[in-house]
Design a protein that fits this description.
single chain; alpha/beta; nine-stranded mixed sheet; globular
């Protein structure tokens, strides 16, 4: 008979302890250790096959044959872009997002598009009944005989249905509701989530079936459950956006089959999610003309250039320590750039509050936006607006120099396509390529040169 022993498992990081502790040593969170019963076999696990040989043999890396497997393309180009070109057979992907953001809507639309291509799809809902899923399908206009829906939380029954139907695509909504009978802890616990995900990964790899699982998020915005869950899956996607706004952003933070910096943009409508093929127009449609502190930058999101507006507001402080606030960029970058402007340009910013924002809710983390942030700060401080037809690109060094950026050709082409007339960029980026005739390229070497070119008098 199997021996039973008690253990305490942290519900945030998966740390295991033989006794209860108020503070988890793994993640330093309080009151996250929960008592669970662990069943272990007295004889231990077998590591050898019946004939005494190891189950798998090592092979030389040069003798292993590889083949490029075709991806399953959906009807959403933005969804395919984030995944790296389509769904990879046998992959396990995790998608997270705030409640009500549209995760189930997105996956149900993708399931419908694959079913219309004569591919059987199994949609498993652990949080809603079949009738609730049907109501959402009717609202989205989803109707296909090859789209199978099931309301089930028992992992064994789910695997049996997968082996019977043999679908080409499986959706699990959500992983926190799935449980294994062998695990004694409650559904949603670390042990249940870890064991269920591991079993689903085995099913996906052995049968070549792509499985998408939905994960809840914590109040900090991270996917709930142990961090090892993100290490087990092949791709981790975040569905972001404000619930009271219509635009949603699908972002990949891990992808074993593609780029980890891709971004897909959707608009939520009554009939479901609609793709936004040109996000630059969306981010710039409400830009104020002739306003001080506004600069447009061409940022790379994966393989796509996106034009966004960076706004800055500089005002005298009424406190001893001036405030430095930023939305959409790293907060630590703002005082660094302000120090460069003080030392290299001569702007007295030490008694000024600074508020920086990336319009549209986009998060930018590449160094190519440094010069645009610096120009916006100087524009607001001097109350001199930038030219509305200018794009500013460049990385700012601590000595005030402007360093080259990557993929300047794609950024300039995107600016020319949207009607901009001039691009202020690093002088080093002007070598080895020919810009479009409709746009003027201005190379600068220092921040002072960029301000002289970019600010009006």
């Amino acid at each position: 008979m199997a021996k039973r022993k008690m253990k305490y498992v942290c519900q945030e990081c998966g740390y295991e302890s033989a006794k209860w502790m108020g503070k988890c040593p793994g993640c330093n969170n309080w009151n996250t250790l929960v008592e669970e019963i662990e069943a272990s076999s007295a004889g231990g696990r077998h590591t050898m096959s019946r004939d005494g040989r190891s189950a798998s043999q090592p092979e030389s890396i040069t003798s292993i044959e590889t083949k490029k497997e075709p991806r399953i393309t959906t009807g959403m180009k933005e969804f395919n872009r984030v995944l790296g070109g389509g769904v990879v057979p046998g992959s396990l992907a995790l998608i997270g997002g705030d409640p009500g953001i549209g995760k189930s809507t997105l996956l149900l639309q993708v399931s419908s598009q694959l079913a219309e291509k004569q591919l059987p799809v199994l949609y498993i809902s652990g949080e809603e009944s079949i009738r609730q899923t049907k109501l959402r399908a009717d609202r989205l206009g989803v109707s296909s005989d090859l789209l199978y829906a099931m309301a089930e939380t028992n992992l064994l029954d789910i695997i049996n249905q997968i082996e019977q139907i043999k679908p080409a695509f499986v959706v699990i909504d959500s992983i926190q509701t799935i449980y294994r009978e062998e695990v004694t802890s409650a559904p949603g616990s670390v042990s249940q989530v870890r064991e269920s995900t591991g079993e689903l990964m085995r099913v996906a790899k052995s049968n070549g079936i792509p499985i998408f699982i939905v994960g809840h998020v914590t109040k900090e915005g991270a996917i709930a459950g142990p961090r090892m869950l993100e290490h087990m899956v092949d791709a981790v996607l975040y569905f972001e956006g404000e619930r009271h706004h219509t635009y949603r952003i699908l972002r990949s933070v891990k992808n074993r089959f593609g780029s980890t910096h891709e971004m897909g943009i959707f608009e939520m409508k009554e009939e479901g999610l609609r793709e936004v093929m040109n996000p630059s127009e969306i981010f710039l449609e409400e830009r104020s003309q002739g306003a001080a502190g506004s600069t447009v930058v061409a940022s790379m999101e994966g393989t796509r250039p996106v034009l966004v507006e960076i706004q800055a507001l500089i005002s005298p402080t009424s406190f001893g320590n001036p405030r430095r606030m930023a939305t959409g960029i790293d907060t630590n970058r703002v005082p660094l750039l302000m120090a460069v402007l003080e030392k290299r340009v001569g702007l007295m910013l030490q008694n000024q509050d600074a508020y920086i924002k990336v319009a549209g809710g986009v998060k930018l983390d590449e160094p190519a936006i440094d010069l645009a942030v610096a120009v916006s700060i100087a524009s607001s401080f001097r109350n001199h607006p930038t030219r509305p037809e200018d794009i500013v690109i460049g990385e700012v060094g601590l000595t005030g120099e402007i360093r080259r950026v990557a993929r300047i050709e794609q950024r300039v082409q995107e600016a020319a396509k949207l009607g901009f007339k001039r691009v202020i960029c690093p002088q080093k980026n002007l070598e080895g390529w020919a810009p479009p005739e409709s746009i003027q390229i201005v190379g600068v070497n220092t921040v002072q040169e960029a301000l002289d070119e970019g600010l009006t008098r």
